[in-house]
Amino acid sequence: MKWSCCQLHRNSFGRLVFVDKNHQVYEGVVPVRAFPITAADQGIALVDHHGHELAWIECLHELPAEYRILIEEELASREFMPEIRHIDSVSGFTTPSTWRVRTNRGDTSFVLKGEEDIRHLSSITLLITDSHGLHFLIRDRSKLDRHSSKLLDHFF
Amino acid sequence: MSYTSSSPSHLLPDFPPYWRTQIEEQLTDDERVLAWLETDLNTQLYFLSGLIVVTNHRLLAKTVEDENWQVWYYQEGLKLTYQDQAGVGKLELSDTCARLAHWYNTLGKHNAVNHLIAHFTGQLDARSAQLTKATVKQFQEQPDLVRCPNCAASLSNEQETCSTCDRETSSPSTWTLFRLWRFAKPYKWHLFAGLILMLGSTAATLVPPYLTMPLMDNVLIPYQSGQPINIDLAVLYLSGLLGAALLAWILSWSRTYILARVSERIGADLRMTAYEHLLTLSQAYFGGKRTGDLMARIGSETDRINLFLSLHLLDFATDVLMISMTVVILVSIDPWLALVTLLPLPIIVWLIHLVRDRLRTGFEKVDRVWAEVNNVLADTLPGIRVVKAFAQERREIERFRAANQHNREINDRVNKIWALFTPTVTLLTEIGLLVVWSFGIWQIVQNQITVGVLTAFLAYISRFYLRLDSMSRIVSTTQKAAVGAKRIFDILDRTSNVPEPVKPVHLPTVKGRIELRNVGFRYETRRVAQNINLTIESGEMVGLVGHSGSGKSTLINLICRFYDVTEGAILIDGTDIRSLPVAEYRKHIGLVLQEPFLFFGTVAENIAYGKPDATRAEIIAAARAAYAHEFILRLPYGYDSLVGERGQALSGGERQRISIARAILINPRILILDEATSSVDTQTEQEIQEALGNLVTGRTTIAIAHRLSTLQEANRLVVLDRGKVVEVGNHTELMAHRGYYYHLYQSQLRNIDTEDRLAELDKTSDSKVDRV
User: Fold this and answer.
1) Of residues A133 and B770, which shows the higher confidence score?
2) Which of A111, A118, A132 should be substituted to probe chain B, the one whose Cβ sees the most B Cβ atoms within 10 Å?
3) How much of chain B, in percent, has pLDDT values that exceed 70?
4) Least confident piece of the model among B238-247, B348-357, B615-624
5) Which residues of A fall within a CB distance of 8 Å from B722?
6) CB contact B722 to A (< 8 Å)
């Protein structure tokens, strides 16, 4: 992808605007990561609001700095997968149960609908989906403190 | 409970208390709060509470961190929009030239958001022009609608809270086993009889040790000290022993028999109820659960509970009875010796308590791991063709090995605790006996008790401790059964997402007019359909067209009521389908799927699946109409031929025609064809098309087809894109319109051309082979 002939900026409505090499203007483009968990920085697609791919970015570093910052900002405002750092309490070991957790995005609580909503992404990484479909990530199970991993252990 | 209030106070009764004083300071005299939204994220997407309020004057917003309220007065061009992505909703306020503000929240408050936007727009409209007064009025009338206090979803009549909120907050109690009483209740008289028998039999077993006392003191000791043996007395005592043994035998036999029968029935009822309930659950539930896990719950968990009731619980009750009776007897003979004998009891109780928690979580883990092993099997075996085709047997074996090993490891860990437990109890028993011996000998030396009393005590407590040992085993079995019960009640407590109406409406005859009003559907966080308005007249054939993922199948799932709409309503002949009993409604629907599922059984049974009492003539007529008759006759046993689990012996087209015959037989008013012809070749498709022609006549038909050419008979085509209706019209109109459909058709035409050319190539190569 040659970025010299394309343009990217943010308009007053806070939306990203992409101009391709044929000077076609797309408003409200969205960056989408191809591997949000396993390889977040590799493979990012810019798609229009119909979901059609406009540009493919192999790696964020290959971009000019201003574009990279724009895309990173946009990704940050769209990506929401709080990482669980600590589990304060779990209302019960059978589902549905309410979890009180501390995450990298602050403290919150969520409802776990069933055991099957805890999925293994790898042997150490877990993805927990709450009753509203929000995803919580536990990046490394083994790094959780004793109290948290004890609580978590009940669900395996 | 009303969402907006007409009370003189500025605030609504269920306004969040935290914000109450803060907002009251802001409001002017004639200002009224119309709607509000508590946000739980700030703009950097950190969890932080905030509030947005719509009043009759303005919009106010603030987060916990902010010092002042942000305020916007209504003015022309203001717009409040909402969109969501990956579990986060974004509310944006903008005017004609820029975005003014934006807020984030997690998706729990979807309905509150709609409410907020509706009021905001209503207020704006009221200011911009008088002609829109109607809208404002509409929103002022809305309070009459019953709404859920938690999420503001509108409720149907009779419901107090909405099912979404109910499901989320109810947590199962720990005393799950007592909930089994619901299943024991029908057998309470049997249980009572069993209990009486149990009392009797336990008492009978306690007679022999008691008789050793006089036997020792009145017969043996006098003989040892030189007196002649008293034969009569000895015979009396011995026959007493025999009688007690026989009585205990009869009583405990009848007790065990009665109670085992009862528990077997309770187990069977439990299994039946669980399965019955499972089948009423909605499609969504099965989507999220794995087959292996469900099978384990219904199968082995009920069995475990059954075993617990018939064996372990029975033993335990007997033990408790025996111990309390023994205690009474011991104390009545000699209180001091009794006290010493009972010393180890609290220690054992404490030990049991100590191990209980560890064992329970351990056994829960064992269960989960076991379900995991089952899941691997259930995943692999149905997909065996794929596994073999890609030569991944090794990998699947490895996967199973991993699950199996995990299972072993977890069991090892549990066994470690368990293994230590039993020997410790035994050791305590031995020590207890030792204490009784020494204290007893000392008391005999002191002349406080006789040898007979000590013998009786020893006889009693050796039983007593033996029972304690087996009682300690109840800990594990109870825990296992409790876990099993919990897992079953997990199913039983689940309410269907597609609830039966409280006041069902019965439609004796159905014409088949379907109306979709503002239908929207959300699957978890993904919005898969929105604002769909569509009326399908009775007898009309409508084709649904669109790329995959455009919401065609969703729409059909909604019409079949496999899921319930999240917004709007679907009406049949003017009645909301949610007010009809689910099974009664589905009887009017004939469904032909892309992958026809044939149950294990004969061809005839499969055709008659929806109408088991169909006559042979009816079955044959249906098969003829579906153009299945002839090939069925070619099968070795005709209509009595067995077809396998997935109808392996039949071709795709043949299976499809059987499933069409199945749909013809029930004579439904509404027919749904979900890609009925897409898994077969063009030749077979033609045959199926003919079969379908018979089926479609005179019925309301909704068809999805990948190949647009198959939908040309449709009265209307509905073009869907990303969950919205984009075009409606017949083929010619849509082609003339040169819109979405036109492009779709053009791109397919090109593909079909190549397909046909490929087919021709195939034919020529075939004929070449023939010649050779």
Assistant:
1) A133
2) A132
3) 84
4) B348-357
5) 50-51
6) yes
Backbone dihedral angles phi then psi of residue A57, each to the nearest 5 degrees: -110, 115
pLDDT tens for residues B49-100?
Answer: 888 888 888 888 888 887 788 888 888 778 888 877 767 788 888 888 888 8
User: CB of B657 within 8 A of CB of B692?
Assistant: no
Contacts of B368 in chain A (CB under 8 A): 115, 155-156
Higher pLDDT among residues B771 and B108, named by residue? B108
**Percent with pLDDT over 90 in chain B:** 3
**Nearest-by-Cβ selection for A132 from B45, B48, B108:** B108
Amino acid at B221: I
Is pTM beyond 0.80? Reply is no
pLDDT band at residue A116 under the 50/70/90 scheme: confident
Q: Which of B289, B361, B524 sits opposite A116 (nearest CB)?
A: B289
Task: Choose among B493, B494, B485: nearest CA to B360.
Answer: B485
Number of helices (H) and strands (E), helices first, in chain B? 27, 19
Smallest CA–CA distance from B287 into chain A, residue: A116
The type of residue at A99 is W
Q: What is the CA radius of gyration of chain B?
A: 37
Tokens 């109808």, residue located: B647
Q: What is the pLDDT of residue B150?
A: 45
A149 touches chain B (CB under 8 A): no
How far is A79 from A74, CA to CA, in rounded Å? 9
User: Residues B425, B472: contact at Cβ < 8 Å?
Assistant: yes
- B46 at A interface, C-beta within 8 A: yes
Q: What is the pLDDT of residue B243?
A: 92
Separation CA B400–CA B377 (nearest Å): 8
* pLDDT (0 to 100) of residue B160: 39
Is residue B3 within 8 A of residue B143, CB to CB? The reply is yes
Other CB atoms within 10 A of residue A126 CB: 21
Query: Residue A111 belongs to what H/E stretch?
Result: strand A106-112
Residues of chain B with C-beta less than 8 angstroms from the C-beta of A133 = 87, 107, 524-526
Tokens standing for residue B218: 């009145």
Closest approach of B609 to chain A, Cα-based (Å): 33
Q: Which residue in the block uniquely carries the two structure tokens 């007690």?
A: B244
Which residues of chain A are within 8 Å of residue B48 when distances are taken between CB atoms? 106
**Residue A25 forms contact with B (CB below 8 Å):** no
CB B93 within 8 A of CB B72: yes
